[in-house]
């Protein structure tokens, strides 16, 4: 039987020891939880630029620079990807969908336009603009000669729904205005047109034909959805298929760009949490044994007045467990505070230059693009469940340590020396 | 002085019986060939100089230490064949302890210290408190029930310790120099209390002391010298 009064008296009267024990467990829990939340937050931050366009990775190829900036041209970072290769990629295990797009620059006498061709029904890429429609309507599958305009560009060019624009010498009617700022800059454009028409325009463009062969099923930008735990393996397979000129962007690409501390934090958070846990384990074992040594005379009295070994172990275990549970609770609260603190942090995730659609030779084109991400630290079970490992590990460790110390205790000896 | 081998004179049926007990710690033998009995309700003192093995013998008799040889029975139960937990249960049922250093639990008040041996026993909290309170009252410490040991005088602490020793209703009280840390007046009070318990309640007392005046109050004295138990 565990005596609650004795338990309470011990914890209160030996307040310093109690505070140290509870504080230690709370600290371990808070560090463990804080690291997990930080790692989770960073993981989501690195994922964010791709999540914004509904993809888990993007694929493009580096190619030759256009000889002349006239009419539709392909930027050197988005060379054609053959239709056959796109089918091969789509068949890779772990890939859920491939949304092809064609991105090109259109130079005319009067203006420069970034144009992207896409399929309105796709699950990723510019098709997500359907959620950012500000006026007019979205493109429909099978429509011809219709275009969406990016609102900021449209305002500057004084274009409104119903107006006509010329792309690659072909007229298009603006049917809606969209806000592409939510797309993290990847695959964003001034004008969005149906994929089939974009393919036709690019295939027929003389400046494209000078440096590339562009087939009717080709594309130059792929938005891929895949099983997240296989992303890096799939990326490696795609690089094998497309060769050394391929550029596959995954969350790891953004992580590498963000560099040093962030990358280390995410990579080593598990290791740091593990080390903290091992340290806590050792300290708990040491503290439990030390507490029993300090209370040697008291334990001697317990035995002398008729407490059996299990009676003593139960009482001491209850003391240890209560402290561990209080510490874990306090640690979770501190972890919650850390989560709250982290949720106010904004990270600027840099966008690789090859994913930026604006030519570097235009004003502002050389500027590094960033996608601003507010750290989201979700209090989901995946993060909090491992915290339960702390009492589950520390509790038995304390019990084992207490048990050993009690067995070693010679009642007569401690009473003689007390 | 003669070697005390089965020639003790218990007042009544033996409640403590030691047969040829020896205890060895390495090359040191603090108790050798101890043979004696203590009768039920008897008050026996164990005299001897410091380091003569008195406390070791008391620990052996109470089952806190195991003899290297020989056998010990308490109320007819053989201690040497019992495991630690059975010994603890036997002590809970049969034995009370009073130590020179009181050995109260510093985090518990006087009342809870008295009730301490009852903690592992299945018993209503109210009943446990009632018993402890009754004993404290008998010790004249009813007013001090809520005080922690650090706020009690030496004499009061020893009286709390005696109340604790009695709370299980034991038949034997083992006392190890119970007045050793007390001034003479308080020591006399404590002795008076113990002799009254022996006389009025028939409690068997086995007391270790080096004070011959205390021994004079007992029914019989055993003397220890170089590990040997003799009867004076």
State the shape of chain B: globular
Report the mean per-residue pLDDT of chain A as an integer.
83
SSE pattern of chain A, N- to C-terminal: HHEEHEEEEHEEEHHEHEHHHHEEHHH
> How much beta of chain B, percentage-wise?
25-35%
Task: Specify the number of helices of chain A.
Answer: 14
Largest sheet of chain B: 7 strands, mixed
Question: Which blocks of ≥5 consecutive residues of chain B have pLDDT under 50?
Answer: 1-12
Q: Terminal Cα separation of chain B, in Å?
A: 6 Å
- Please estimate the helix content of chain B: 25-40%
**What distance separates the N and C termini of chain A?**
27 Å
Largest interface: A-B, 29 and 34 residues
SSE run of chain B: EEEEHEEHEHHHEHEHEE
Number of helices of chain B: 7
Multimerization status: heterodimer
Shape field of chain A? elongated
In terms of structural class, how would the helical and strand content of chain A be classed?
Answer: alpha+beta
- Strand-residue fraction of chain A? 15-25%
Helix content of chain A: 40-55%
Q: Count the domains of chain B.
A: 1
